[in-house]
């Protein structure tokens, strides 16, 4: 080996050559490797460049970032000591302690030493001072000249200071001073030349995301209403509590939610949401909560989440949870609508603010009057089966319906009355207000006409001079008919000459939740002529209703026949007083057996004279 050549420090293999003829010539000599290696303590000509990655990245507040410390030498450099000194501004970053105050993670797959005497973090007032020293006890450790080597790493959590889209004075920097050093020492103990990226890292802060959309509140005018928004990390039940987010949205409520006021068409906006994946609950008092899962909030962008149509906030939740285990106190909403809520509204029915039975929670449409629209909502939503709807209260349905009060039967001092509707479209709920002097009349019984067709919740209230009868179908079904008996009642006279009863008003809610008032027809004490109505429903299974009227007393027979004219069953027979009547056929013959599917006739005869014959269809 020629000693005049400059060699970098390091370890070398040694070969010797020989020939047995005493001549010299490398081409002809035999190379023999010597045992061991030769260590050359020359002067290092290598230089090491240090940098951090990632750098100049866009981060979001709350992000955890793993910062890699990378070293690169243009040639293979053998290192005996690695020293790192890094300053991290504590205003913008929180350094994660990897254990016992050690911020750095050694990279054993790339460069590691046999001992790490220093791995520390110190709060220097505005900066975290990170220091690391690694001593290499293995002679084969090197920085590969082919590219950067990760020699260590640390982790930071992005903080909340700064405004706009960029941090101010947020640079992470390398330090190389007399007391704190970033660099390497070669195998001869000589410090190597280093180049430090300046700044080592500088990040951008991505603006937080925004969520907007529209909220539809059943039966309420959305604009101006206040709703509560719960924004929770996906899978969590705890709303986020980020300080900037709360400050931008008016602060947190006691349950961690924020309140927003709806604009035109129920528009809302929530700003300064830290980027991430969330579950969102929209809440309005006395309505059912709606949940949207897997809502992605991304930097700069706006995520639209609507709570409308089938996802609207349904009304009707005012009872169900006893908040203090004291049965004498009011129960609280339990985020479901059931019989407890129906009962609460019926108890407050007809009340106004200041009244003895007033319950503001039952006034779902906020008109300061608990009435049939409110009752309709609670009965509708007591079975939420996901079928579409829904509605805002408007007075445009069933506008041509006529209501009449008819005396159906009289026996001694007892009279049975019926409230009859004609020109009906569809019906889901009703309220009938009547003038009944309680000193002159006693209510013996009453029957809800809607209960003949669907499961309904009905009630009545009696005052000194008035009475209310109301009912609502449970769930979203509705009656579709042109005419029907709304309610029947049997009254007993208390005095010899009682005051006449009358209808004050009939309020109707159709199958789409629209409210209308029936037109009051001229009441007739008794029917003017014999009549047989078309059965309802038709076709039918399992039962159908057949109404008929008698202007005076007579021998009556109402019977059902097949297509051959054979009598199947008798529905009414005998001497009957003048009045209006309703018979129900259940599809059975006189022997109690179910008839087959097909067309049948029914005929009304009075005093052996045929009044009318009509057809009906029974389906199995």
Percent of residues in β-strands: 35-45%
Distance between the termini: 110 Å
CATH topology of the largest domain: Immunoglobulin-like
Number of domains: 5
Which structural category do the helix and sheet elements fall into? mainly beta
SS element count, helices:
3
Radius of gyration: 45 Å
Shape call:
elongated
Mean pLDDT: 82
What are the key terms here?
3 helices; Immunoglobulin-like; disordered N terminus; 6-stranded mixed beta sheet; single chain; about 625 residues
Protein described:
The chain has 620 residues and is mostly beta strands. It folds into 5 domains: 31 residues, no CATH class; 159 residues, Immunoglobulin-like (Sandwich), CATH 2.60.40.680; 103 residues, Immunoglobulin-like (Sandwich), CATH 2.60.40.1120; 210 residues, Immunoglobulin-like, CATH 2.60.40; 88 residues, Immunoglobulin-like, CATH 2.60.40. Helices cover 4% and strands 44% of the residues. The radius of gyration is 45 Å and the shape is elongated. The chain starts with 9 loop residues before the first strand and ends with a strand. The N terminus is likely disordered.
């Amino acid at each position: 080996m020629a000693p005049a050549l400059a060699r970098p420090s390091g370890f070398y293999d040694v070969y010797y050559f020989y020939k047995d003829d005493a001549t010299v010539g490398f081409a002809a000599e035999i190379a023999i490797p010597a045992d061991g290696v030769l260590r050359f303590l020359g002067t290092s000509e290598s230089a090491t460049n240090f940098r951090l990655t990632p750098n100049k990245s866009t981060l979001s507040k709350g992000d955890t970032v793993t910062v890699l410390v990378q070293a690169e030498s243009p040639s293979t450099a053998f290192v005996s000591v690695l020293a790192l000194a890094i300053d991290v501004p504590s205003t913008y970053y929180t350094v994660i302690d990897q254990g016992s105050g050690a911020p750095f993670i050694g990279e054993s797959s790339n460069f590691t030493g046999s001992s790490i005497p220093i791995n520390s973090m110190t709060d220097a007032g505005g900066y975290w001072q990170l220091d690391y020293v690694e001593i290499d006890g293995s002679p084969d450790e090197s920085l590969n000249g082919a590219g950067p080597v990760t020699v260590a790493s640390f982790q930071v959590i992005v903080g909340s200071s700064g405004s706009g889209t960029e941090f101010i004075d947020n640079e992470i920097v390398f330090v190389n001073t007399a007391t704190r050093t970033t660099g390497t020492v070669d195998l001869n103990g000589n410090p190597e030349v280093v180049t430090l990226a300046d700044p080592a890292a500088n990040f951008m802060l991505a603006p937080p995301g925004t969520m907007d959309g529209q909220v539809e509140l059943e039966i309420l005018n959305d604009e101006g209403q206040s709703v509560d928004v719960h924004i929770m990390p996906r899978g969590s039940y705890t709303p986020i509590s980020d300080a900037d987010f709360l400050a931008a949205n008016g602060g947190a409520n006691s349950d961690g939610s924020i309140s927003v006021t709806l604009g035109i068409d129920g528009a809302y906006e929530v700003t300064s949401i830290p980027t991430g994946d969330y579950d969102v609950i929209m809440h309005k008092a006395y309505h059912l909560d709606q949940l949207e899962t897997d809502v992605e909030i991304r930097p700069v962008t706006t995520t639209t989440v609507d709570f409308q149509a089938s996802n609207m906030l349904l009304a009707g939740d005012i009872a169900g949870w006893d908040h203090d285990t004291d049965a004498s106190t009011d129960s609280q909403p339990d985020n479901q609508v059931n019989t407890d809520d129906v009962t609460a509204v019926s108890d407050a029915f007809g009340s106004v603010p200041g009244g003895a039975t007033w319950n503001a929670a039952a006034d779902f449409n906020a008109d300061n009057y608990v009435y049939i629209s409110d009752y309709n909502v609670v009965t509708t939503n007591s079975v939420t089966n996901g079928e579409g709807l829904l509605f805002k209260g408007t007075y445009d349905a069933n506008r041509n319906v006529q209501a009449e009060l008819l005396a159906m039967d009289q026996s001694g001092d007892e009279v049975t009355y019926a409230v009859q509707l004609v020109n009906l479209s569809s019906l889901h709920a009703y309220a009938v207000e009547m003038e009944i002097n309680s000193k002159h009349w006693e209510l013996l019984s009453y029957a809800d006409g809607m209960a003949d067709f669907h499961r309904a919740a009905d009630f009545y209230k009696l005052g000194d001079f008035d009475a209310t009868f109301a009912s609502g179908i449970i769930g979203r079904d509705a009656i579709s008919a042109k005419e029907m008996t709304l309610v029947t009642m049997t009254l007993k006279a208390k005095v010899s000459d009682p005051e006449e009863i009358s209808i004050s008003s009939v309020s109707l809610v159709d199958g789409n939740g629209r409210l209308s008032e029936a037109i009051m027809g001229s009441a007739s004490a008794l029917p003017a002529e014999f009549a047989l109505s078309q059965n309802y429903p038709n076709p039918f299974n399992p039962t159908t209703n057949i109404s008929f009227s008698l202007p005076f007393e007579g021998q009556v027979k109402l019977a059902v026949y097949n297509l051959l004219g054979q009598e199947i069953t008798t529905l009414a027979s005998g001497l009957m007083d003048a009045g209006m009547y309703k018979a129900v056929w259940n599809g059975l013959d006189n022997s109690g057996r179910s008839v087959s599917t097909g067309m049948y006739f029914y005929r009304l005869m009075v005093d052996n004279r045929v009044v009318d014959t009509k057809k009906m269809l029974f389906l199995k």
